[in-house]
Design a protein that fits this description.
It contains 14 helices and twelve strands. It is α+β, with helices and mostly antiparallel strands. The strands form three sheets. It has a five-stranded antiparallel beta sheet with strand order 4-5-8-6-7. It has a four-stranded antiparallel beta sheet with strand order 9-10-11-12. A three-stranded parallel beta sheet has the order 1-3-2, with no helix packed on it. Helix 12 runs antiparallel to helix 13 and helix 13 packs across helix 14.
């Protein structure tokens, strides 16, 4: 590991001031950053420790539930209000990592975790995300775990967060602070598809820090669930996952939300599939039509073509379970 300075920040202002320097990274729970430091993927000149910042509250008030960026994943998942009002969030978090990691991982850090694409972490491999302009070894390599939605010829790395997928299904928002002041982003505007600049993974500006996640109170959030398919039952990333939420009106779908994990370069919102369901009665055929629509633009590669039918089956199973279709 390279030598680097460590600067613990006691206040948000101190953290933001330190974070404006080039080559400085924020360190929260460290469950991603420390691994990548060890592997040599990250080589910052300094780390700004933000684990002591007072961003650990979960507040339920008015039209929003607000989760501080330093609340641990475990505390979010087991919070009674989250479990009752946003079950998809609790289920998504508990489907990821291990209990020990969830105890350390932070809300903000989870959203910004890096891909688990093996070529990104292998310094001997070409990776445009790690070293722009070197190529993407995954495109012609072993790409079983890589993305089939939102890809480009520069990058097919899959976004790893289960939590972020659940937030996309709930129209969550992200509160951000930085040198230019405070701003509020839709969760779907936080992450960037690779395009020609896969090294830019989010729309955060230099020195900006996520300070909270905001969940809107709505009827559909209580009727929500997360379904994840993976190679083993625990401590494994998704091959395909679906976060679904729905409001029922007189036996037919009102507002519906579908988000996918394990298949996209970002947490993937299936808006056109949602539109197919609105106003229709739940059923196997209509759920299958929505699943087909959600994967219509998929671009599978040699080793991950199985993800197309797998993702469709995951969507159908999630919607069937949500609507009580047997």
């Amino acid at each position: 590991m390279n030598r680097l300075a460590y600067m613990p920040a006691q206040t948000l202002g101190t953290a933001l001031q330190a974070g404006t320097d080039d080559g400085v990274m924020f360190l929260a729970g460290g469950t991603t950053v420390v691994d990548l430091l060890r592997e040599g993927v990250f080589t910052p000149k300094a780390l700004v420790g933000i684990e002591s910042l007072p961003l650990r509250d979960i507040r339920v008030d008015g039209e929003w539930t607000t989760i501080g960026a330093m609340v641990s994943n475990s505390d979010v998942a087991w919070n009674p209000a989250i479990k009752a009002m946003f079950p998809v969030v609790s289920q998504a978090i508990l489907a990821g990592a291990s209990g020990q990691i969830r105890n350390m991982a932070s809300t903000g850090g989870n959203l910004l975790q890096r891909t688990r694409c093996p070529y990104y972490r292998d310094l001997t491999s070409s990776c445009n995300k790690r070293s722009p302009g070197t190529g993407c070894a995954a495109i012609e390599g072993f790409n079983r775990g890589n993305a089939i939605l939102g890809t480009s010829e520069k990058c097919i790395a899959t976004h790893a967060s289960d939590f972020a997928v659940s937030l996309v299904a709930l129209d969550a928002r992200v509160a951000v602070s930085g040198p230019g002041g405070d701003r509020d982003l839709a969760i779907t505007d936080l992450h960037r598809m690779p395009g020609d600049t896969p090294e830019r993974e989010s729309n955060l500006k230099p020195g900006e820090l996520i300070v909270a996640v905001k969940l809107p109170h709505a009827a559909l959030t209580r009727r929500s669930l997360y379904l994840k398919v993976r190679d083993r039952h625990s401590y494994e990333f998704a091959l395909a996952s679906a976060a679904v939420a729905a409001e029922m009106r007189d036996g037919v779908y009102g507002e519906v939300r579908i988000a996918l994990g394990g298949v996209g370069t970002v947490p993937w919102r299936a808006r056109s599939a949602e539109g197919l369901l609105k106003g229709k009665a739940p059923g196997e055929l209509v759920h299958q039509a929505a699943a087909d629509e959600a994967l219509r633009d998929a671009k599978p590669r040699r080793h991950n073509a199985f993800k197309v039918p797998l993702a469709k089956s995951t969507i159908v199973a999630a919607l069937n379970q949500l609507a009580g279709v047997t």
